[in-house]
Design a protein that fits this description.
Blueprint: H1 6-19, E1 27-30, E2 34-43, E3 46-55, E4 59-67, E5 70-76, H2 81-88, E6 102-104, E7 111-113, H3 119-132
Antiparallel strand pairs: 1-2, 2-3, 3-4, 4-5, 5-6, 6-7
């Protein structure tokens, strides 16, 4: 997978700055092996952490809501063993390097399989969750 354009990362940064306050400087590291973008900011009483990494294998992402140092909700597609067990059962070890979209609940105590997510979808989720007061 080729790294996205500078325009892609600029649009992600603009989107984050639109939704968040106290935005940290953007981390953007592009080299021949990978491209990584990360940013943090605040939304109400929550710390928001966003990261995307592109390699030749594909896109890896992590979007997290943290309050008082504890995960409230998070979405990522890392090859999490618990997520792999949910999807593949006893055969999960045959898939240890597979990216698997999933959602972490409060303090990462719960985990559910989910669909792929983008930064836009994450902010849509947050807007809906905050509007009804639940994650």
């Amino acid at each position: 997978m080729a790294a996205p354009s500078e325009q892609y990362f600029a649009e992600l940064t603009d989107l984050a700055r639109h939704h968040l306050s106290q935005v940290s400087p953007v981390t953007l590291d592009v080299n021949p092996e990978r491209a990584m973008w990360a940013i943090q900011g605040r939304l109400d009483d929550y710390d928001i952490h966003l990261k995307e990494i592109f390699t030749m294998v594909g896109r890896t992402y992590a979007y997290y809501v943290v309050q008082d140092g504890q995960v409230v909700v998070g979405f990522d597609n890392y090859p999490d063993r618990r997520a792999l067990r949910l999807k593949y059962g006893a055969d999960f070890t045959a898939h240890l390097s597979e990216r698997i979209p999933h959602k972490h609940g409060p303090r990462k105590a719960t985990l559910d399989l989910s669909g792929e997510m983008t930064v836009v979808q994450f902010f849509d989720y947050l807007n809906k969750a905050l509007a009804i007061g639940t994650q």
